[in-house]
Amino acid sequence: MAFLNPLLLVLAFVAASGVAYLGLRLLAPTPLQERVHALAGAGAPMAAAGEEIGQRLARWLGPLARPSLPAGGWEQSPLRVRFSNAGYRSPYAPVIYFGCKTLLTFVLPGCLLAWLWLAGVEFQANAWMPALLLLAATGYYLPNAMLARLVKRRQRELFEAFPDALDLMRVCVEAGLSLDAAVERVGVEMRLESPALADEFHLVSLELRAGASRTDALRNLALRVAIDDVDSMVAVLVQADRFGTSIAESLRTHADGLRSRRKLLAEEKAAKLPVTLLFPLVCCIFPALLAVLLGPAVITVARQLLPQLAH
Hints:
- By secondary structure, the protein is an all-alpha fold.
- The protein has a domain at 156-263.
- It has helices spanning 4-27, 31-40, 44-65, 79-86, 93-119, 125-174, 179-189, 195-209, 214-225, 228-243, 247-310.
- It is flat.
C-alpha cells in the first residue's frame, strides 16, 4: 500500500489536466468566431466570447437543470429578482445556476466515493452516509451562497457610488437638462467609477426611450437594485414629479443624507476594528511574541535547573 498514495496523486493530476484541457478546447472560440468578434469592434470580443461560453454551458447543463427548477417555474421564482440584483440578465444564467446545483449535488458525494474506492477503504453505510448527505447538501446550496455573495458585493458597489451619481444628476438638472436626459448623462459619466450603476441608469434610459412612464422606470430600478437608499430616492423623485416640486433640491437633500449615512457606516466599522483584531492578536501574534521573548529564558533556566534536579 506504500505506492498507493503517489499513484492517487498521479491519477488525480492526470484527470484534472485532462478535464482542464478538454474544457479549454470546448470553450475556446473557433477561428471564424474570433474573426467575427474582431470585426465587431474593440469592446465586443469579450462580451461575445462570454455570451458564447454561456450558451455552451447552458446547452450542456440544460438537462441537469430540470430537476432543480422551482415547482412554480422560473417565471414565478423569487430567484429571478435575485439574479437581477446580482446583475445577471442573460437567459443562460438560470440554466447554468440550476444545472450546477444538480451537478454539485451528485459530484461531491461521487468524489468521496471515488476516493474511498481508490484508497481501498471499506464502505460502511452507517459511518459514511452522514458525510455523503452533508456533501450533497453542500453541493446543492453552494450556488445559493455564491449568488448571495455576488448580490451583496454588487449592492455594496452601488451603495458607495450612489451619492456621487445623485450629485452629478443634480448638476445636470440645474444646468437645464430634463430628468430623462440627466439619467442618460449620468449613466455615461459613471461608467469608469461604477460600471454596475452605469448599467442600471442605462437600463432606465432605455425604458424611458421605449415609452415606459418615468414612475415605472424608476420603480423597476428600485426592484433591480434592492437597496433601501435607492427605494427612498425613487419615492422622492416620484413625489417631486407628481407634485411639481424642485427635483434639484430633492436630489441635493437626499444626496446629503446618503453621504452622511455612508460616513456613519465608515465610522462604525472603524469603531469595530479593535474588537475584530482581538482574536488574531491573541491567537496568532501574542503566542509568537511570547515564544520569542520568553523562549531563550526558558531554555536557559531548563539547562541550569534540570541537571541540579537530576542529582
